[in-house]
Specification:
Layout: H1 19-32, H2 41-45, H3 51-62, H4 73-86, H5 90-95, H6 102-118, H7 129-132, H8 152-155, H9 171-180, E1 203-206, E2 212-220, E3 227-235, E4 242-245, E5 249-251, E6 262-264, H10 266-275
Antiparallel strand pairs: 1-2, 2-3, 3-4, 3-5, 4-6
Helix pairs in contact: 9-10
The chain binds a DNA duplex (21 and 21 nucleotides) through α3 and α6.
DNA sequence: AATCGGCCCAACCGCTTTGAG
DNA sequence: CCTCAAAGCGGTTGGGCCGAT
């Protein structure tokens, strides 16, 4: 037995709202409010609509201060950041973006932002230069952070820990940044001449085994709290597997690495971006052996992935 | 100019959550 | 507690629009 319908489908209008219906709904709510009862509202407002339909129309389109149109770089970064941490909980994400609705964000993610992160070019329906040239992260976040030393901690020596914890790392953002520096086959870095990943001014570090492993350090995105995700990552020597490692979320101008490394295959990173599954269970050891300076980046009992 | 294919987004559907009685 | 109606929410759909041919 199915669920009882919320209203008599045969008596309600469906489909796009007319300007007259919009005006009626808007006027009624501005005059009387919703009355705490959406089911009764359409009748009171003289609308042949389902209460749920009225609610959706109001929340997504008619209510004051709704923002439509292009998302800013900052909004992109916030969406990515929150998606990485909480998944597709659009209403929560929308709560961080004043004027945006969950529906808007969901549509934007599904049609544009996800593709942008994955590096899939979106077809241009209209020539809107500022829209199509927009990058995922503000260019200011692409700058490298500090000179090379053997200690990861000291790479951010001017910074101090702010938010340790399993949710402190945004693999979607870090993964997206890594993907952007790989070539089309995703098995070589673009800058073959230097054999370095070139997001920011990535450094080559020696692993504990004595062989060289290319590592990128980056700072990506920023959220509404003024937080950034610091991360490291790179391509293992066989170019078969990427590793993404433990950036901590730090307050701008402060912070030290504080998270255990995570590594993913390229496919896993793509899957992560595609599915949006939060990453809390995928901590594994640092493949290079050089991460974790100061003993703050590795935890005992880490899961081995392979 | 006509047709086609693909993208976008408003709206719908139905499941889950909430809270009043 | 339990029940049930209403609200909230996220996934999905389909029509309109636009660019390509």
């Amino acid at each position: 037995m199915g669920r009882a319908p919320c209203c008599d489908k045969s008596k309600v209008k469906k489909g796009p709202w007319s300007p007259e219906e919009d005006a009626k709904l808007k006027e009624h709510i501005e005059k009387y409010g919703t009355g705490g009862n959406w089911i009764a509202l359409p009748q009171k407002a003289g609308l042949k609509r389902c209460g749920k339909s009225c609610r959706l129309r109001w929340l997504n389109y008619l209510r004051p201060n709704i923002k439509h149109g292009d998302f800013t770089e900052e909004e992109d970064a916030i969406i990515c950041s929150l998606f990485a941490r909480i998944g597709s909980r659009w209403s929560i994400i929308a709560a961080q973006l004043p004027g945006r609705t969950d529906n808007d964000i969901k549509n934007y993610w599904n049609t544009k932002l996800k593709k942008k992160i994955m590096g899939i070019p979106t077809p241009q329906r209209k020539i809107q230069p500022e829209k199509h040239q927009r990058q995922l992260f503000p260019s200011s976040f692409n700058a490298m952070i500090s000179p090379a030393t053997s200690s990861v901690g000291s790479r951010f020596s001017s910074q101090k820990t702010l938010l340790p914890g399993p949710d402190a790392f945004d693999p979607v953002i870090a993964g997206a940044a890594l993907l952007r520096v790989l070539d089309d086959d995703h098995n070589q870095v673009k800058d073959n001449s230097s054999s370095l990943l070139v997001f920011g001014d990535g450094q080559s570090c020696s692993s504990s085994g004595g062989s060289s492993t290319k590592i990128i350090y980056g700072r990506a995105a920023e959220n509404e709290l003024g937080l950034e995700t610091l991360f490291y990552g790179g391509l293992l020597e066989d170019h078969q597997k990427l590793f993404l490692g433990g950036g901590s979320r730090v307050e701008r101008g402060s912070g030290v690495w504080g998270e255990a490394p995570i590594d993913y295959t390229l496919e896993e990173i793509k899957q992560l971006i595609t599915t949006g599954s939060p990453c809390s269970s995928l901590f594994i050891g640092d493949p290079t052996g050089v991460i974790g300076g100061g003993g703050n980046a590795r935890a005992s009992g880490l899961m081995s992935y392979n």
